[in-house]
Specification:
The protein is an alpha+beta fold and 253 residues long. The protein has seven helices and eleven strands. A hairpin with a 2-residue loop joins β7 and β8. The termini are close together.
């Protein structure tokens, strides 16, 4: 099996309003593993949920990368099992610490192997791909506002906002139920692809058009990561902000 290593740059920031950073991320470039979560809950509980979920998912993905299994079905199953491991980790913590009841987190992960990226997500943290200058969102938010748009009840996000529908009402999250519904997918890699995983502190505040403009400005990942973070802060920084930029490197032998 060939692990597809990558170059990456990552940022996480408490923002300008919140007292605590409830986002958490893990990036293991040499093993093609990226996981990001945006926690929620009572005092400090969101921090606990995101850390537990991200670490459990990253451990499951890393373990899989170190084994000789690489077909598409195995890889998609790996993504599902990693998210399930994250859900179990959060629920186990709640069972042992009842004061944390109600905590949860979003989760988005990417697994780079062979000539593909395999991904899974729950909640409204996102995965994007920039290819040939075109930015595409590969995940679809598990949120009330997205569900209402999908069902045709509102013609646009702006119309939903005008009706009082908030962006932060999730329809799925990690940790709240024993079984979690998971969306997975895969994409063939190209050498010029650039991937962005982020919490809604970025994508909920900075329009996709602006994110795309920034990502087209430079080939240097650290420069781009700084620019994205600055854009989120300039937009008010009302939430925690986390992001990982990942670009495929030459496959290891």
């Amino acid at each position: 099996m060939t692990v597809h290593a990558m170059e990456c740059a990552q940022r996480t920031h408490v923002g300008l309003v919140r007292e605590h950073n409830e986002d958490y991320l893990v990036c293991i470039p040499d093993w093609g593993v990226v996981v990001l979560g945006d926690g929620m809950g009572g005092h400090l509980a969101g921090e606990v949920a995101s850390r537990l979920a991200v670490e459990a998912a990253a451990e499951a993905l890393l373990s899989s990368q170190q084994k000789d299994q690489a077909d598409d079905l195995d890889s998609l199953v790996t993504a599902v099992r990693a998210v399930e491991a994250a859900n179990r980790a959060v629920r186990a913590k709640v069972e042992s610490s009842p004061e944390l009841k109600g905590m949860g987190t979003t989760l988005v992960l990417a697994l780079f192997r062979e000539d593909n990226v395999y991904f899974g997500h729950v909640g409204d943290s996102r995965l994007y791909r920039l290819r040939d200058g075109d930015l595409r969102q590969l995940t679809r938010d598990h949120s009330l506002i997205q569900e209402l748009l999908d069902n045709g009840l509102f013609a646009s996000i702006e119309e939903a906002h005008a009706a009082g529908i908030g962006d932060n009402i999730l329809t799925r999250s990690i940790g709240l139920d024993p079984n979690v519904e998971i969306d997975v997918g895969d994409q063939r890699l190209r050498d010029d692809d650039l991937f962005l995983l982020c919490s809604d502190g970025l994508c909920g505040r900075v329009p996709d058009t602006r994110i795309g403009e920034i990502l087209r400005q430079s080939a240097d990942l650290e420069t781009l990561a700084d620019a994205l973070l600055e854009a989120a802060l300039d937009a008010g920084g009302r939430d925690n902000i986390s992001l990982v930029l990942a670009r495929p490197a030459a496959p290891s032998e």
